[in-house]
């Protein structure tokens, strides 16, 4: 019996996933397989290739012929060179390890809790600051009244530009309205 090592297609439309199988050459592409020896997922970045090297070497040694696609995969993994006695290829690209979702969630939760914990830590600092502030108030009680008046003056100055911005906003909308009516005419 002629034995082939080939790809058995699985997955969905536009999302192919293959199993590398050893099968009789007369069976259908997705038909019965003698043995499953690996997987190939071309849509992953980089492509996911897992091969049971010892089983592939066994089947190649007893005469199984790889299809062209499987031969290219075996060349990338180094199994074809091992079988033929050639030098090994450069190593495959490996996808970076994915972050554990649970660990990421817990880290985000701690960060959010850290925001809640931060105000609790700040009052302790404020307790130390009032002691210094009490000493400063005792030394310069009349000086505190003058900055309060100075703070009020900038607040009035800030209000004036806000009113000017509000006055410009309706003018802009009138200009937009006249431009819009001009476009329609």
What does this structure look like?
By secondary structure, this protein is α+β, with helices and mostly antiparallel strands. Helix content is 58%, strand content 18%. The protein has 5 helices and 5 strands; from the N terminus they run E-E-E-E-H-E-H-H-H-H. A hairpin with a 6-residue loop joins strand 3 (35-41) and strand 4. The protein starts with a strand and ends with a helix. Mean pLDDT is 76; it is low at 143-150.
Q: Tell me, what's the shape?
A: elongated
**Mean pLDDT figure:** 76
Strand content: 15-25%
Low-confidence stretches are: 143-150
N-to-C series of helices and strands: EEEEHEHHHH
How many H/I helical runs? 5
What is the total tally of β strands?
5
Biggest sheet features:
5 strands, mixed
Largest sheet: spatial strand order: 4-3-2-1-5
Helix content: 55-70%
Distance between the termini: 83 Å
Label the structural class: alpha+beta
Using only C-alpha atoms, the radius of gyration works out to 37 Å
